[in-house]
Amino acid sequence: MERLVLKINNPDTYQQLVLLLKQFDKSEVEIIEQDELFTRNRSHLQNELSNIDSGASTMMGLDELNEELEKIISKSENKNL
């Protein structure tokens, strides 16, 4: 399976291309629309990966995460008493 991502700036060109692609059998070519949420998520994840690669992010293991979560839960429970 091959994937092709295009950015088409002209609405008429986009419509012509979609019409052309729709002529193929669905088992050969599938048109996958990318929505705004997908685009925002992809951008966010690319930024997060860049931060990890550059060392700007702080990482923690599962044990450390569990300890932090227990502290937060404990503080929340104490406030409610």
Describe what this molecule looks like in 3D.
The chain has 81 residues and is mainly α. It has one domain (11-80). It is 60% helix and 0% strand. The chain has helices spanning 11-21, 36-54, 62-80. The radius of gyration is 23 Å and the shape is elongated. The termini are far apart.
Key attributes of the depicted protein:
60% helix; elongated; mainly alpha; single chain; 81 residues
Quick synopsis:
The protein is mainly alpha-helical.
Helix and strand topology:
Layout: H1 11-21, H2 36-54, H3 62-80
For the terminal residues, how far apart are their CA atoms? 58 Å
What's the Cα radius of gyration? Answer: 23 Å
Number of strands: 0
Topology as a string of helices (H) and strands (E): HHH
Shape: elongated
Q: What fraction strand?
A: under 5%
Structural class of the helices, strands and pairings?
A: mainly alpha
Number of helices: 3
Total domain modules: 1
Mean pLDDT: 91
Are there runs of 5+ residues with pLDDT below 50, and where?
none
Helical amount: 55-70%
Largest sheet: none
